[in-house]
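testing teh design pipeline on a random one, pls ignore if ur not involved
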């Protein structure tokens, strides 16, 4: 069996790369060790978490907000198995879509664990049946990432869970401790808080969502606290003790060393993810990894060995599904002789909490550190008509533009629906646009997106509705 391209791993990076390469006329095969395609994202990541975030958000709204709009539904009752059924239906529909796309694009599928035995040769060990060798001119490593462990804390996926276990709990924990105030901690913490858990988030650093724009995150933390989240920042977990009665979690202040003990039914460990290259045989064929375990690439996805490439979570850049997808497209185009490219400075980041947080480009902190002079335009949703009609007035849109040229350098938003709204700024920034371009673009009324236009006007100190 000989191919132009064999892709190991069918997450968003791998399956998209395979499809784009097939579109460009290559003979393509994929190797996947799971029974289903779609990787972390479709099976245990983006998609199931959004299914539960959506359902739990409606559950909470039905309990608190419907009555404010004249809708009486009584006290909503949780049917957790049915909610999990909804989640599974969403997963099944999405993974089935990839089977269809592989067939449509004539991509051959090998189920099993792939190992690179030499440049151009992948050995596939299936769950059942004989080992096969697939030959290809080029090999793509798209094996993604796995949960990072907290030293000394064993994940059993029942009481001490990773995101995977937290998407499958069979009852609502009365007390949940989340270790890590990153994206997973806040999203999955939101799900279980809305369904009735008391959620305490323990974060090592002195702030939540490190790396994101400070002002935006400060506001987010205040809103999350109002919702009932408890935060212990500047704090580390030093141990988790299991007993029949539940879990005892030892924590310690990073600064003072002051120790405390918290009780919980479930601990969610969400302290990041590590690139996954286990068992691939990279070492033996000479593919180098960096000090964080990522495959070293040359900026064009080529590893240190000719004919072996890597994309997605397993290489540098943000560990996000859309980044992995764009890596996949760019690599397929490069292999077809085109000029594939991904600008890692323009990868939007969205935290799908309520309100959502959406970020793009540079933060104020980064601009200050680089000594770049900038103007800030900010517009609150409390002054936006549609947000008022929807009773979602928390948050704002902030645009950062170069003081000298007015070129937009960053956008930071918090509010309902901002995960959709960020993309007009993505397009603008991809074309090197200015705040004035946004400000002079007609936005339909009444929409939440008018806040983007107003924020752009505010860069030049001329917002209309503020
Ligand atoms: P993966 O999706 O990890 O896919 C890798 C695939 O390779 C897997 O299917 C694996 O089984 C397979 N594989 C590994 N080794 C082998 C081998 N030797 N042989 C054969 N197959 C192998 N990102 C977002 O952008 N938005 C979100 O909302 C979002 N939500 C998330 C929520 C959670 C709970 C988690 C955990 C992650 C979330 N992410 C989100 C991150 C996103 O899932 C990843 O960035 C994305 O899946 C990376 O894609 P990938 O193709 O690089 O790898
Ligand atoms: P993360 O990197 O977003 O956050 C981890 C947090 O844990 C950080 O705040 C970090 O300071 C903290 N931390 C690290 N070690 C700690 C310790 N010992 N004790 C206490 N806190 C500690 O990682 P997370 O949330 O696990 O997510 C993993 C990846 O998945 C991320 O790269 C993220 O981009 C991706 N993801 C994306 C989503 C989205 O786009 N909406 C949703 C979920 C995950």
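output:
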């Amino acid at each position: 069996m000989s191919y132009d391209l064999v892709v190991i791993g069918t997450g968003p990076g791998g399956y998209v790369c395979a499809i784009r390469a097939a579109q460009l006329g290559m003979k393509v095969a994929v190797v996947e060790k799971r029974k289903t395609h779609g990787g972390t994202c479709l099976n245990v990541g983006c998609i199931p978490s959004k299914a539960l975030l959506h359902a739990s958000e409606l559950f909470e709204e039905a309990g608190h907000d419907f009555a404010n709009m004249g809708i009486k539904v009584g006290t909503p009752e949780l049917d957790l198995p049915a909610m999990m059924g909804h989640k599974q239906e969403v997963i099944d529909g999405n993974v089935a879509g990839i089977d269809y796309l592989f067939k449509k694009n004539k991509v051959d599928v090998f189920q099993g664990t792939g190992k690179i035995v030499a440049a151009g040769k992948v050995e596939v060990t299936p769950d059942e049946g004989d080992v096969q060798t697939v030959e290809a001119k080029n090999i793509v490593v798209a094996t993604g990432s796995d949960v990072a462990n907290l030293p000394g804390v064993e994940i059993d996926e029942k009481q001490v869970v990773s995101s995977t276990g937290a998407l499958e709990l069979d009852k609502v924990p009365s007390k949940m401790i989340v270790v890590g105030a990153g994206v997973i901690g806040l999203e999955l913490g939101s799900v279980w808080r809305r369904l009735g858990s008391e959620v305490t988030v323990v974060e090592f650093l002195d702030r939540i969502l490190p790396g994101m724009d400070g002002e935006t995150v400060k506001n987010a933390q205040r809103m999350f606290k109002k919702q009932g989240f408890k935060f212990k920042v500047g704090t580390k977990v030093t141990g988790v003790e299991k007993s029949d009665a539940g879990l005892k979690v030892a924590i310690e202040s990073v600064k003072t060393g002051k120790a405390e003990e918290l009780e919980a039914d479930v601990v969610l460990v969400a302290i990041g993810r590590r690139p996954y290259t286990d068992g691939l045989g990279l070492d033996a064929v000479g593919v180098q990894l960096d000090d964080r375990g990522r495959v070293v690439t040359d900026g064009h996805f080529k590893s240190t060995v000719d004919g072996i490439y890597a994309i997605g979570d397993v290489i540098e850049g943000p560990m996000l599904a859309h980044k992995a997808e764009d890596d996949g497209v760019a690599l397929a185009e490069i292999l077809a002789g085109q000029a594939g490219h991904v600008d890692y400075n323009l990868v939007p980041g969205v935290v799908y909490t309520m309100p959502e947080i959406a970020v793009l480009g540079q933060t104020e902190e980064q601009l200050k550190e680089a000594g770049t002079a900038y103007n800030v335009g900010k517009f609150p949703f409390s002054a936006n008509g549609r947000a008022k009609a929807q009773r979602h007035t928390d948050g704002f849109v902030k645009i950062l533009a170069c003081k000298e040229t007015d070129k937009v350098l960053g956008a930071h938003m918090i509010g309902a629906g901002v995960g959709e709204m960020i993309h007009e700024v993505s397009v603008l920034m991809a074309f090197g646009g200015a705040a004035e371009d946004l400000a002079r673009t007609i936005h339909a009324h009444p929409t939440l997106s008018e806040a983007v236009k107003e924020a752009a006007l505010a860069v030049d100190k001329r917002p209309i509705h503020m």
